[in-house]
Amino acid sequence: MTTETIDRIISGDVRSAARLMRGIEEDTPDALKTLETLYRHTGRAYIVGITGAPGGGKSTLVDALIGAFRRREMKVGVVAIDPTSPLTGGAILGDRVRMQQHCTDPAVFIRSVATRGWLGGLARAAVGMMHVMDAMGKDVVLVETVGIGQQEVDVTRLAHTSLYVLTPGSGDSIQMMKAGILEMADIFVINKADQEGAYRVKMELEAMMAMQGEHPEAHEQRQPPVLLTEAVYGKGVDDLCQEILKHRDYLLSYGLMQKREHERVRLELAEALEAALKALIDSRTDHELYESLVDDLVQRRIGPQSAASQLIGRLSRT
Ligand SMILES: Nc1nc2c(ncn2[C@@H]2O[C@H](COP(=O)(O)OP(=O)(O)O)[C@@H](O)[C@H]2O)c(=O)[nH]1
Ligand SMILES: [Mg+2]
């Protein structure tokens, strides 16, 4: 791709952006090179992570939030990360349908990405898409991901503001304490507040946070607010939008934005490093040795650590 493509993306051209995003998803060297050049033009968008258990109403909430940000004349990008198997297609279609309301608005750009091939961390493709939307001039990029395992941890680290969505009576709040989410979310959202028990969950959460006391890293003196929403009816969504912007002001006025930015970039570097090392290992591995080590492992002649050491020893000699 050319500098012309880059100029077009920066001016907000949807077709060029979509083409690049397809390339990113397919992991083509050309797309990755373009993305690298584009990186210089990123860093302006405000990243909002939305996580929580499946079915909690995250996609519906994102759809409603798009409207709220648009009413504030902010341009919006959405990256929906779907961790389900690419074979089944997952919930991607459902998510798209749920956000369709805004598909004719040129200031809104929505993409879904499957997380194939990236165990543990956040899909690299998703991060790439965030950058493209950022470079396109989106003021806010909403990143939705299902709250399971490492992925939600990473999305909270990648975001400037992290929302954690739960529902009434799901016993989510107890789960969260275990997962350490309590420390990571900046705003809690109890969606489906039309259902019974929303207020109780709010009280429980607030009590839990009060009990926990200060944030262990103590860089933020602020207790995360707990908001009630009814995403399907758009209720409470404007307040949520305002709360997100309030958190941004908070980060800015206390000089915490820089710190977040460092953490975000650190994670990206770690992922890039891991990917580069994987590629290096793949290209340099002695496949004959590899297979013979597999045999050795099956026969229990050797342990996996020693097998790995042998392969690495061979790598550094080539
Ligand atoms: N009763 C009720 N249902 C909702 C609300 N928000 C979303 N839903 C429904 O919950 C289901 C799951 O929503 P979805 O946005 O796909 O959840 P996600 O898996 O977290 O993205 C859908 O059928 C929504 O219509 C709400 O505020 N109240
Ligand atoms: Mg969803």
Relevant terms:
single chain; 318 residues; alpha/beta; Rossmann fold; 3 domains; seven-stranded parallel beta sheet; binds guanosine-5'-diphosphate; binds magnesium ion
Care to describe what's here?
It is a single chain. The protein is α/β, with parallel strands linked by helices and 318 residues long. It folds into three domains: 1-40; 42-254, Rossmann fold, CATH 3.40.50; 285-317. 54% of the residues lie in helices and 13% in strands. The chain is built from 14 helices and seven strands. The chain has helices spanning 3-10, 14-26, 29-38, 58-71, 92-98, 124-135, 150-158, 172-179, 181-184, 198-212, 237-253, 257-284, 287-298, 304-317, and strands at 46-52, 76-82, 108-114, 140-145, 161-166, 187-190, 226-228. A seven-stranded parallel sheet has the order 3-2-4-1-5-6-7, sandwiched between helices. Strand 2, helix 5 (92-98) and strand 3 (108-114) form a beta-alpha-beta unit. It is globular and about 60 Å long. Residues 58-59, 91, 95, 144 line the site of magnesium ion (MG).
